[in-house]
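Here is a tokenized protein:
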Amino acid sequence: MNTDTLKIRPMSRLEVDLAITWAKIEGWNPGIYDAESFYQTDPQGFLLGELNGEPIGCISAVAYDQNFGFLGFYIVKPEYRGQGFGIKLWQAAMDYLGNNRNIGLDGVIAQQENYKKSGFHIAYKHLRYQGMGSGVVSSDIVPLKTVPFQELVAYDRQFFPSLRSQFLENWLSLPDSAAWGVLKDGHLAGYGVIRPSELGYRIGPLFANNEEIAEEIFQALLTKSIDSSVFIDIPDINSQAIALVQRHEMQPVFEAARMYTKETPDLPINRIFGVTSLELG
């Protein structure tokens, strides 16, 4: 088949819902309301591949700033795989982000060698754990909406390679979600978000200054998902995060590798108890 007939263009907001649907079919358990937050972060960064007018594949290439971008939603419909369409989507995404940015992604095991050929290296792994929700809200917990937004953005910046004010503004107001924080001496010492997904709820992010604060926030988040499955993606090199999920009898169900094209960002991994998402970093 002639791959030159593939048309690649930016998605509309409604077409990002199609990417979410395809991710659901792939078993990635996307958040039900993720599309709006994702799209608003970079409306030009979601690419659709069309063959004779039919959508057959997609990829996201979100440019957070001039120095950092993130790839996700790399999907080609099964019946169109192995025909060269995927690599054309990949090349369009890489071209959009350019050579100057450090580009990150979370690669499934089957694709990691291919990503290495494109210049990516593995920094560490993300392990997805699944359990059941049942927690308590301690007296230290505060609704995140009571924390000044700029303080939240500044705190979040410690754990992510760039400022992401636009993303957070939408992420913290997702329907049927909950966002909690802990203050120490009047300053934010950790926060977490839980949102509904296709198979229950997903926690992300969960950032905290230490394991005890992470535990408090985790417990508060679990009150949102009582009697439902809950999922969290954690860096495998954070032993305290592993200990936290094991205390709650959660089980590993999925693995991906965090990969970058340039240097691994200098982030406090020992304080990252749950990554925000595998689609946008």
